UniProtKB/TrEMBL annotation:
SUPFAM superfamilies: Nucleotidylyl transferase, P-loop containing nucleoside triphosphate hydrolases. This is Bifunctional coenzyme A synthase. The gene is COASY. It comes from the Eukaryota. Residues 1-18 form the signal peptide. Residues 195-337 form the Cytidyltransferase-like domain. It catalyses: (R)-4'-phosphopantetheine + ATP + H(+) = 3'-dephospho-CoA + diphosphate; 3'-dephospho-CoA + ATP = ADP + CoA + H(+). Keywords: ATP-binding, Coenzyme A biosynthesis, Cytoplasm, Kinase, Mitochondrion, Multifunctional enzyme, Nucleotide-binding, Nucleotidyltransferase, Phosphoprotein, Signal, Transferase. In the central section; belongs to the eukaryotic CoaD family. GO terms for molecular function: ATP binding; dephospho-CoA kinase activity; pantetheine-phosphate adenylyltransferase activity. Its EC number is 2.7.1.24, 2.7.7.3. It comes from Phocoena sinus (Vaquita).
Length: 562
């Protein structure tokens, strides 16, 4: 059967009966759609009658919200799918205007429409499929050559074990906020509200938070997106998507699920954001983790003579497949950890190098643990070139950089035995851009030449992968010598601690050293693979082994010719 890039899943079974069947339905849909799956809830709709079914309002109850959460949680096992539950026909009690007859545009027009509707004989009954296609195109912009599939009986038997139906779903909104309630209780609508977050790599837990906010808001939703100082405490901030990219994905999702709302997406630069100062807002959606922040927002509003916001606290989605050192909830932090060791952008082509020889440039800020990663790669079979060692060779009496450096900086940089005093030389160039450039103009070409000689030695020894370990790899322009740049990252506070402990410097001196280098973010922006030594040594080893295995796969699959 064909696989489609985008699809629309129309769910017609009553929600209490549908919940236990949801996992096999999503699995069946995931076999047919490989990118975007829109979901439209129309419980009770019949595709087997003579009349063409019409879209009708579904009242927003706590049961509906809990089902939406259940669906997003179930979809998390199909992470290749971008699932979007459409809310256009789901209305709160206080705002139930008739549905408009206009067709809603979608960012990814569905190529196939699927349904859980059960025909009597379980066949691909043509009249039902025709009604399904007409229904889909009357509601949403679909591809001209729309296909249709009745998922039943592919998603499993029609009769489920006794006791599996009418089991209440886990509550999405914490009973403590706003009040205890029953599943069938309608959700109260508000005109304007707010929600905030980082929204990095928009995932299903984000989608629950945003969907609840969209259901509650009837006119305007203010969405604060964390930026700048609020990102500093994030895990692996170097791998966060840029603000503009996060906003783009967020905006597309929001407009898709509820285009009738006005969305005001703004950068969140302090813990309060617009929720702390906008008098027109009525509610704030928070997670279990940010509930205290919501309480702080309300205290701040009261201090400034503004009414408190109604807080809706959303339960976290559990990640049942989380690994060691990853959070047990669905989170962007875990997704960023999973990126460590992966290829982030295509490798450079290096036709000037022999086809069977592959060069990695390994870099990282001071204290990042770069050299320990180099030794781990050496243990896996890589030939490691230590640029610091090459620098020592170049500085040594008789070395290729010795005379040029002495000529440029004078004999007062020498020890009594004629060896260059690197501490004296370092103090001369530190903080003096002109002097530093004079030194690097001498040293970097010399070290690059020595590195090329080492690469020839590696080839002579039959090595297939060579790693150039160099803190100044990118500053020196040596990325032109390698196929891939691998960067080791570490939080700056941890780097400072390590430098102080290793080199005996003061914290201020360690900070000064880091500020004189490219930042971790600047390095990552030009990197193909990112690693981190932040956790226990065995976690680093696992990352390096993963990166090495993926590298070997890339090399084996690369064309052998020039």
């Amino acid at each position: 059967m064909a696989v489609f890039r985008s699809g629309l899943l129309v769910l017609t079974t009553p929600l209490t009966s549908l919940a236990p069947r949801l996992a096999p339905i999503l699995t069946s849909a995931a076999r047919l759609v490989n990118h975007t799956l829109y979901v439209h809830l129309q419980p009770g709709m019949c595709l087997g009658g003579p009349a063409q079914p019409q879209s009708s309002p579904v009242q927003a109850t706590f049961e509906v919200i809990d089902f939406i959460t259940h669906l997003y949680a179930g979809a998390d096992v199909h992470r290749h799918l971008d699932v979007r539950i459409l809310l256009t026909n789901i209305r709160t009690k206080s705002f139930l205007p008739p549905l408009t007859s206009s067709v809603q545009n979608l960012a990814h027009p569905p190529e196939v429409v699927l349904t859980d509707f059960q025909t009597l004989d379980g066949s691909q009954y043509n009249p039902a499929k025709q009604q399904l296609e007409r229904y889909a195109t009357s509601c949403y912009s679909c591809c001209p050559q729309l296909s249709s599939v009745l998922l039943y009986p592919d998603y499993g038997p029609g009769v489920l074990p006794v006791g599996s139906l009418d089991v209440p779903l886990a509550s999405t909104i914490s009973p403590a906020s706003p009040v205890g309630r029953s599943a069938k209780q309608p959700v109260r609508g508000h005109r304007r509200g707010a929600v905030g977050g980082t929204f990095d790599r928009l995932h299903n837990a984000h989608k629950v938070l945003l969907s609840v906010a969209c259901l509650l808001a009837q006119e305007q939703l203010v969405v604060g997106v964390a930026d700048k100082d609020l990102l500093k405490s994030k895990l692996l901030p170097e791998l966060l998507q840029p603000y503009a990219e996060r906003v783009e994905h967020l905006s597309e999702f929001l407009v898709d699920i509820k285009p009738s709302l006005t969305f005001d997406i703004i950068p969140l630069l302090d813990p309060y954001g617009p929720a702390g100062s906008d008098p027109s807002l009525e509610f704030l959606v928070v997670s279990e983790e940010t509930y205290r922040g919501g309480m702080a927002v309300n205290r701040f509003r009261l201090e400034n003579d503004l009414e408190e916001l109604t807080l809706y606290q959303i339960q976290l989605l559990k990640d049942l497949n989380h690994k060691e050192n990853e959070e047990d909830k669905v989170s962007s932090s875990s997704f960023r950890q999973q990126m460590l060791g992966n290829l982030l952008r295509p490798p450079h082509k290096r036709p000037e190098l022999p086809p069977g020889f592959y060069v990695i440039g390994l870099t990282g800020i001071s204290g990042s643990g770069k050299s320990s990663v180099a030794q781990r790669l050496k243990g896996l079979g890589a030939y490691v070139i230590d640029s610091d060692h090459l620098g020592h060779r170049a500085y040594a009496p008789g070395g290729p950089a010795y005379q040029p450096v002495v000529k440029a900086f004078g004999t007062d940089i020498l020890h009594k035995d004629g060896i260059i005093n690197r501490k004296v030389l370092g103090s001369r160039v530190f903080g003096n851009k002109k002097q530093l450039k004079m030194l690097t103009d001498i040293m970097w070409p010399v070290i690059a030449k020595l590195a090329r000689e080492e690469m020839e030695q590696a080839m002579a020894e039959g090595k297939h992968v060579c790693v150039i370990d160099a803190a100044m790899l990118l500053e020196a322009g040596w990325q032109n010598m390698v196929h891939e740049v691998w960067t080791v990252v570490i939080p700056e506070t941890e780097a400072v601690r390590r430098i102080v402990e290793r080199d005996g410097l003061s914290e201020a001196a360690a900070q000064s050293r880091l500020q004189s280098q490219m930042s971790g973010q600047q390095l990552v922006d030009q990197s193909h693979v990112v690693l981190s030594t932040f956790w226990e040594p065995h976690v680093t080893q696992h990352q390096v082994e993963k990166a090495w295995a993926l590298l070997q796969k890339r090399i084996s699959e690369a064309p052998s010719g020039p």
